[in-house]
Structures are given as structure tokens and as C-alpha cells.
TrEMBL record:
SUPFAM superfamilies, sorted: Actin-like ATPase domain
One Pfam family cited in the UniProt record for this chain: Hydant_A_N
InterPro entries assigned: ACX-like_C (IPR049517), ATPase_NBD (IPR043129), Hydant_A_N (IPR008040), Hydantoinase_A (IPR002821), Oxoprolinase-like (IPR045079)
Domain Acetophenone carboxylase-like C-terminal: 527-693
Organism: Falsiroseomonas selenitidurans
All residue ranges annotated as the Hydantoinase A/oxoprolinase domain in the record: 206-500
Domain of life: Bacteria
Domain Hydantoinase/oxoprolinase N-terminal: 6-184
Protein name listed in UniProt: Hydantoinase/oxoprolinase family protein
Amino acid sequence: MSGTARIGVDVGGTFTDFVLHDPVRKLVATGKRLTTPDDPSEAIIAGVLRLLEETGLAAADLHSIVHGTTLVTNTIIERTGATVGLLTTAGFRDVIEIGRETRYDLYDLYLEAPPTLVPRHRRLEIPERIDVHGATLLPLDEDAVRTAVTRLVTEEKIEALAIAFLHAYHADRHEVRAGAIVAELYPALPVSLSSRVAPEIREFERTSTACANAYVQPLMRRYLDKLEADLAALGFAGRLHVMLSGGGIAAVRDAKEFPIRLIESGPAAGAMAASFLARLTGEDHVVSFDMGGTTAKMCLVENAAPDRKFDFEAGRVRRFQKGSGLPLKVTVVDMIEIGAGGGSIARVDAASGLMKVGPRSAGAKPGPICYGRGGTEPTVTDGDLVLGRLDPTYFLGGEMALDPGAVQRAIETGIARRLDVPHDTAALGIRRIVDETMAAATRMHLAEKGRDPRRYTLIAFGGAGPVHAYDLARLLKMKRMLVPLGAGVASALGFLVAPPATDLVRSHVGRLERLDWAHVNGLLAQMAEEGRALLLEAGAEPDSITTQPAADMRHVGQGFEIPVKLPSMTLTAAELPGIRENFFASYRERFGRALTDLPIEALSWRVACLAPGRDIQLAEVANTATESFTEAAKAARGVREVLFEGAGWLPCQVYDRYALAPGARFEGPALVEERESTCVIGPGAKVSVDGFRNLVVELP
């Protein structure tokens, strides 16, 4: 029975979450530890050891560990990556600085441009040229490559190199040869070829993605190498996998070569957990709400799958301002992420005299004031404690005692006195601001997709998600929300239920009626073979792998394209009418009409390779339960006063989450406490526990 347990690990900005699942032993265990920002692997190793101790397992009993991290995102935002050099085609040295030649704010005279990752003096030109059709106009100057890379290594002390030549998405031979020359001279130097990292049309985005990959590659290699070594020292002999930004599981080797594909690794796990829960409960229209210690993430999930997109902006100078960040060509789960977490800091703005919350966070060090770890500025978690929503003696199951007195004093002196209001009113203001911020972001995200939030169910998780979910659902005029058992670590659950999956892309431009279908089929077959190899390395069964082809298309003359499903992996002119209809359907969904008399062209061809994810019986999560009751009154364990907006202080029945069995029913106001989170239920709501031990809340 050895080697059957799996662990999902989600490294967040404040907490690192764990879920262990062993289908043979019918065992599910959870854990949560403060993140160790200086070395995230410390919290991972400590958490794994704790889970093994609690379950009586040994490291040899672990089949695999699936891991996600915010390390790539944080590195780009904080600009703490490697010293990178760039080799590019002569005349195109400034592509990443010129960008699209657009301004993200037309009327700001002091516009701050997103800083490039590679300054101009480390961008060197190489004589070479391939045209748009793949023909060689100017052979690669190999001596120039040797001279340039030697200068970058010896004089600029670069730690990684990006190579991005013109039209390399169509013909990569010059990039491949240049990479081989660099490897001969400096075999230890990490090299990112744009034709491997992002083989898509558009020089700016492709070059930017290659540079970003090189920027984070040395750090991620060191981090993953250390994590593998530390796990091996424990006796772990299984496989270490990582979560990609698109929600698929990949092998560590893939993460080391293309770390930029992990930029939304952690948030994607939450979306996959919500998708699993939606499929389990039969919910077709869901908004996933994942609120942790640093950020809140909202994602649309329809038909048990999250929306995805194939580009992403990292490190925006201005939040929500499209065009103010670094453009990346990577597959990501389409979600909105804002600086609204339990650690978001509340303050009174000196200029306006108004209270503001976030996006700055107290993080894990020093954390909220109530943690007693040196925090001095009030946070959302501190406000929740003052409002009675958190039990100071049962935080993390009683492992971390909270200090309400210190919080009350800080809110009184730092906020309440400046606003001339009582401290509990100030705490209520913190909650209202953060809830309104999240509601506004969710409305905007759904409005851009033409969706009405009133028709959706809210699935809430994360350490702070269930605390704020009821008020968020009320602000969005939703009538139903669902909170899973183990909600505080549900993102880590997402790692265990996510399928081995990867997305590949190749650009080949042409009008539909003029395409060389043999060439297109060759591209699709090549991507399918590459994807299959990656999934086998990620642990997929050979017979379980499926492929889903698609293409990016547009009307001739349009500036940007839309994704279109393809009928099969082998295409001929006979499929042309069906492809056109799929394009019109996709076009109608986005723009409300179809222009059927205009010619269509394809730009890029995609293949999604995936294998089935694993199933987990969520009812087993409550491994710490001693009894289960269908009568909610038997699961009650006291009453606590909670301040609700518009209703004042109300006595709330507190329920033991682990004692609530399927069939239990009760009404709000109420609090449902578990080890990693607390669910706050407002007055008038009706609550039931379904067959999977989810809390189903019907709002009044």
C-alpha cells in the first residue's frame, strides 16, 4: 500500500495551505502554516512533516506532491529577478520599449511607462534576418553571437539570456543555432528562446515573454532544486509536480525550463477547486471567490470549467489599467485578482481624510496586529476580530491565539480617533470597504463577459473567503452561496483534483480558403506529440490523454483575434464550412453579431492536451471529527455577539463545522467554525448541509 498518498501545497502571500489525500487508506487531512517569505520551502517542509505526523504516514508513503506558488508573480512585481541580457535582430533592439506605441491613459501628462526587464545597454543586436514566409534574407552572423554573449557575460555579468529574432515564430533556425553557440561557450547560462517560450506572432509580446522567462528562470531553478533536495532528505521518492497558470499539472522539468508559465500558478488552483466543486454539486453557473491573506481572486466557472485566456499582463503600474504592465503570451485562468485579503492594511488617507483598505498587505511578516508578530497597522483580519467574526481562542484550531485588546487599541488610535467614530464602527467600515471593493471588481469582471451576477452561485473558500462571502453575495444580489468543508485550504485541494494538462501554440498566418492544410495538420500533430510527452512525464496514463484543437482567427484587417474550436486534429477543405460557423458563433458571443460576408484568416493554431483529474471524496476531509449530527443543535458550541451592518450586535449560534452531517439545517445569524476558516452567515439566511458536506446558504 506504499506510495498512494498525494499532497497539494499552495504557497500564498500569508499562509501556505496543505491537503493530503490517500484514496487507498480513505484519508484526507489538511494543514495551514504561515508562509516563510525568505525561503518558501521552509514552510512547505514543516507542513509536510506535520501532516505525516498527524496521519501516521511516512515520506515513503507519498506518491506525489503537487505544488503552486506566487514566487514568479512576486519576482516580477518586486523586480527581484536575474540580470538578463537580450540578443535580437539588428534594428529591433528597442521592441520591448516601443511596445505597441499606445498610451494606457491618454490624458495623463506624467504617464509612468511599465519598466522593461532588460535595460537598453544589455540588449544587443545580431545581424540576421528571416522574412515572414521563413526565407533567409540575411544569414546568422555567428561571430557576432559569440562576441555579444561574451560581452554580456564578462562585462554585464548577466545571469540569464533571452534570444528573440524577427519571425522566429515561423522559422526558428537562427534562434536555435544562436542558442547552441551560447551553450557551447557558457553551458551553465540559462537561455530562453522566444520560439520555444512563446512561438506566436507579434514581436513585442513574444520578446517580452522570453525576457520575463529568463528573468525568473535562475530563481525558480534554485528554488525547485532546493525543494526537491529537501523533500528527498525526508525520504520522499515520489514525483514533484507543479500547477501551471492555465490550471493543468506539469512536471518540474517543464517548470524549470518555462517558469513564466507558473505566473498565475497559485490562483489557478483555486479556480480548479471551484470547478471540481461545481461539477460535484451540479452547479452550472458559478463565481469562484478565493480570499486569502494577501489577495482576493474571482473567476467565472461555467459548465464546471473556468474561463481561460492566452495572454496576461504582469506587474501593472496601475491596477486594472490594461496596457500598464508587461504583456506575456501564456495560458492563464481568466480571473480578476485584487489586493483585498485578510492582511490588507486599513488607513486614513492624509489628503482626503477618508479610510482606505489595501492593496498593501501585512503579509506573513509581520502580519495583522492580532497575530502578535510585530504588526502595528490594522488589517481586515483585525477588523473581523473586533466585529466578533473570529474566535481569538480558536484561530487555526486554537494553535494561534489572537490578541483582541491590541487590535482595539490600534484601531482606536490609528483610525477611529481620526474619523471621530467608535472603534467598532471603524472596524465595520474596514469590512464594508473591502467588501465593496471586491463586489465592484466582480461586477466589472462579469460585465465584461456580458454576465449577470444574480444568476450565479458563489463558491467561497480561502482563509478569509467564508468570513466575507455572505456580505459579498448580498452586495452582488446573489441568492445562493456554497462553502465547502475545509474551505480554508480549498486552493490546495485544487492541486489534487486538477488534471495533467498543457496548451501548445504555433503561429501560421493565412486566409482560410488559401491555407495549406497539410502544413496545418503537421503543426497540430507536432504539438499533440509534444503535449503527450509532457503529460506522460506529469504522470498521466497513456490511454487517457485527449487533444482539443483550436485556432486564433479574425476578419482580414482586424487588429486582434478570437479563439475558435476546430472540428478535428486532421483538417481538410471539407471542414471549412464548419470552421467558419464556429468562428461566427465565437464572434457573436463576444460582439453580438456576425459579419458573414467578410473574409477570415487564422493566425495561430493551438492544441490543448489533457488527461482526467483525480476525484476526492470531500466527506472524508473531516478526519478530526469525533461525532456527526444531522440535527444542527447538537453541533452547537456556544453563542457569540457579532456586529452586522444595519442590524447592530446580534447573538450568533456557533456551530462545529466537523460535527455538521449531511441533512443538518439551521438559520442565520450564525457562525460555523473549522480549523482554517469561519463562515459568517447573516440574519434571515437558511443553511443546509448537502451530501458532500458543503454548506449551502440561501440568502433572503
